[in-house]
Structure formats: structure tokens, C-alpha cells
Amino acid sequence: MILFVGLGEWQLGRAASSRSLADDFTRGAPAIDWPRLPADATRYQRVTASGHYDPEHQFLLDNMSHAGVAGIEVLTPFLLDGGGTVIVNRGWQPFGATRADLPAVAVGDGPRTVTGRIDELPRPGVRLAAPRITGWPRLVQFPRIEELSTELGRALYPRVILLDPPEADGYARNWEVRGIDPDRHLGYAVQWFAFAALAAAIWFALSLRKSGEVR
Questions:
Q1: Contact 63/117 with Cβ under 8 angstroms?
Q2: Distance CA 36, CA 26 (A)
């Protein structure tokens, strides 16, 4: 009973966390200039960063779908004015006639200012070893930020920027909160509490029967 109740409370906590993230995402707070971004900035905080893209070293995040169509998300290094590099997710592109037909992702390297939201790279349910691929742009499957940093040979900010839909040089960008819907967490919590109630009922019934046998 204690285990089931604990699991139910855990799911309630996850539902609250998911709802808080969704609220932060939809609130659309003003963008913070990158130099003023606090180290503990919340996920989906809107930011404005100045610098320039590195068009020669881009990553294509595989296994991304949009409207039921398979494709990639374009991850482009952005060299910040004042030093440092952050990955900008410029949005989704479909494959060509085959998976070997990669989409064109060219972008200029002139100075610019971009606006978006900070987020984490998507994580798979199960991480499988993928063969090393050379050449650019480079197709990758659910990499960690440390792996991208190694491929580039330079340190990267631990989060990425989701480029705002109105920004130039982007593709399909219908951003939404990643993860399980809060209502599903609530549904899981109800199930765990139901198991706890069932365990309590079974324990109570067995206790009555044992007492009756003693008599």
C-alpha cells in the first residue's frame, strides 16, 4: 500500500511539473538578452542572442516527424558575440525521395540576432548505439550535447535555442512542450491509488477471515 501510494504521489508531482512547464511555455514572457541569462534559467525561457551561424558544421537530428511525415530537425551552431557557442534548432525538414536524399539546409554566416526559447535536446525512450557518420551536414540520432561538442571540437551551452517561428532562415517550427501530457500523469496517479485501495481491501478481508478462523 505504501509503495502504491508513493507511486501515485510521484505521478501527481510529475503532473504538476508538466503543467508548470506548459504554463511557462504558453505565457510567452519577454525575451532575455543572452548575456543576462541566469545560469538557472527555467526551461522554455525566451532569449535573444547575437552572433553568427556556423553553416559548415550542421547536424540533422534524425527520427523527427511533423504532421505524420518523417524528417529531420536542423541543429546549427551559433557563435555568440562575446564568446561561446549554442545550438539553434532551426526547425523541421522532410527527407527527399529517399532517406539518403537529405534536405538543403544552407544558411548565411553574417552577423544576426536570433530569438527563441531555451530547451533540451530530445531524449529517446531507449538509446541505441549508432554508427559514426562523417561529413557535413551530419545526420545524428538523439545525441547528447557533450557528443555534439566533441564533434565540433568546441564547448557548447548545455541547452539549445528553439528558433521562434517568425525568425528568418528557419523551417517548420510548431514548437510544443515535449513529454507526457499532465492529464496522463493524473490518470497514472489514479491507477496507483486504485491499486493501493485494492491492496487495503484485500488486507482487510484476509484479516477478517484470519480472525474468524481463530474464533
A1: no
A2: 22
Extended strands (E) in the chain: 32-33, 46-53, 59-66, 69-80, 85-94, 112-119, 138-140, 160-163
For residue range 101-153, what is the model confidence (pLDDT) as tens digits? 889 999 999 999 999 999 999 886 555 555 566 789 999 999 999 999 999 99
CA dihedral 178, 183, 184, 187 (to 10 degrees): 160
Residue 183 CB neighbour total at 10 angstroms: 11
- Check residue 12 and report its DSSP letter: H
Signed CA dihedral, 93, 89, 117, 11: sign only: positive
Q: Residue 54 is placed in which grid cell?
A: 556556423
Provide the pairing of β-strand 160-163 with 85-94: parallel
The one-character DSSP state at 103 is P
Nine-digit cell string for 66: 511533423
User: Residue 193: CB partners within 8 Å, gap ≥ 6?
Assistant: 4, 5, 8
Start-to-end CA distance of the chain, whole Å, equals: 28
